Amino acid sequence: MSDFLIVGGGVIGMMTALQLADAGQQVSLVERGICGQEASWAGGGIVSPLYPWRYAPAISRLSRWSEGAYPSLALRLCEETGIDPEYRQKGLLYLNVDDPETALAWAREMGKPLERVSADMVRAKENSLPATEGTLWMPTLGSVRNPRLGKSLRARLSAMPNVTLHEQCEVTDFVRHGERIEGVRTVQRVITAGHTIVCGGAWAGKLLERLGVSLPVRPVKGQMIAYQAPPGLVRRVVLKDGRYVIPRADGLLLVGSTLEESGFDKTTDEDALASLRQSAENIVPALADYPVAYHWAGLRPGSPDGVPFIGELPGWQHISVNAGHYRNGLVLAPASTHLVADLVLGRQPLIDPAPYQLTPARLG
Questions:
Q1: What is residue 23's three-state secondary structure?
Q2: Do residues 85 and 45 lie in contact, with contact meaning Cβ atoms separated by under 8 Å?
Q3: Does residue 206 surpass a pLDDT of 90?
Q4: Is the CA virtual torsion 199, 203, 205, 210 positive or negative?
Q5: What is the torsion angle, in degrees rounded to the nearest 10, for the CA atoms of residue 331, residue 334, residue 336 and residue 339?
Q6: For position 130, what pLDDT does the model report?
Q7: What are the helix (H) ranges across 92-175?
Q8: Enzyme group, top EC level (predicted)?
Q9: Dihedral sign, Cα of residue 224, residue 228, residue 234, residue 236
Q10: Which DSSP letter does residue 143 get?
Q11: Does pLDDT of 131 surpass 90?
């Protein structure tokens, strides 16, 4: 029997397992598919909320800590596994922002570098962009190549003697003794542990229905496209009207994303493709000369206000939750997983856990 059992092998589940394994705990992780292949793979990899000044303080506290953790985490994983998560800190250009004064006031309060820049400076940084006045520039923003991050986390956990991965192992129920949770039942086997942590992403709500708990986490589909362009066509993240272009070192350019209430459907469609392509060419006109190389969809774990649920599950013993990060799973992962580890290990919490607890008011 392990000390801890993690249900869900996305970035949240894997980083939770890593936090606990680093603390010397015996950890089992159960994943219905292959670790890192759902929303963690499908996103863009920006390690900040898209418009951070528009988010609740509870999200800002987690994102600020996480943003500072990514450079060292990426370096660690690259050194330990040989798989480079490709953390890049090239900054972000915000085009066509409709609340610049709010953004600048937020930046001053947070001590975050953010400034208005001229059209000439925009062209100097990204000569593939059209001349744009009133752009905001955040030089410290970074991004990570999330599929590589998932691969490196999986490789690191696989190499740790105190971690056991159970992939392609779907949970069918929880093992209960009265109000105590002692593990899970899967199609293949029963897996027991001293404490279970549900990190099931978009599936977390469905999992907890088995315990009679209504966790307001639902799947929200996001479609994205990618172009294979010459390296250097775009060098940094560009955001305009809620859509973004994210460059990779090899010239791959990601463009996203849609927000769709489609249940657990991950199919792509031509309307979304056309909309994403129009956004891409509006941001980088040169992309009109390139075909779309990839088109895919993922399922975000939507929650009512985007604030994740982190803490003990009411009405049950020895079970906790870390889910409901919505569009910011990768953004919030280092801090939220550190926080849940603090709580289950009885350590001083990284930040005040109160805003994330599963209270009756939040569970509805």
A1: coil
A2: no
A3: yes
A4: negative
A5: -160
A6: 87
A7: 100-110, 119-125, 146-159
A8: oxidoreductase
A9: positive
A10: B
A11: no
Give the separation between CA 230 and CA 284, rounded to whole angstroms. Answer: 13
Task: State the pLDDT confidence band at 172, using cuts at 50, 70 and 90.
Answer: very high
What single-letter amino acid sits at 186?
Answer: T
d(CA 165, CA 357): 27
Contacts 24+ apart (CB under 8 A), 275-279: 276/223, 276/224, 276/225, 276/243, 277/225, 279/240, 279/241, 279/243, 279/255
Show the tokens assigned to 350. 């990284």
310 pLDDT tier (thresholds 50, 70, 90): very high
Non-local CB neighbours of 179 within 8 Å, separated by 6+ positions: 315, 316, 317
Q: Please spell the DSSP secondary structure of 256-294, one letter per residue.
A: E---B--TT-----HHHHHHHHHHHHHH-GGGGGS-EEE
| Tokens, residue 34 | 């292959």
Nearest 10 degrees: CA dihedral of 292, 293, 297, 301?
-100
In angstroms, the CA 83 to CA 155 distance is 8
Residue matched to tokens 């709500």: 205
Tally of CB atoms within 10 A around 210: 14
Which tokens sit at 260? 């769709």
In degrees and rounded to multiples of 5, residue 293 shows phi and psi of -85, -35
> What are phi and psi for residue 290, nearest 5 degrees?
-120, 145
Q: Bridge-partner residues for 247, per DSSP?
A: 253
Report the 10 Å Cβ neighbour count for 258. Answer: 20
Lowest mean pLDDT among 80-89, 92-101, 119-128, 318-327: 119-128
Give the separation between CA 248 and CA 251, rounded to whole angstroms. 6
Q: What is the pLDDT of residue 139?
A: 94
Give the pLDDT confidence of 274-307 residue by residue, as tens digits: 999 999 999 999 999 999 999 999 999 999 999 9
Q: Per DSSP, what are the bridge partners of residue 310?
A: 322
With a CB cutoff of 8 Å and minimum separation 6, the contacts of 67 are 47, 48, 141, 142, 331
Cis peptide before 257 (omega within 30 of 0): yes
By 3-state DSSP, what share of the chain in percent is helix, strand and coil, each rounded to 5?
35, 25, 35
> And the tokens for 285?
């006109």
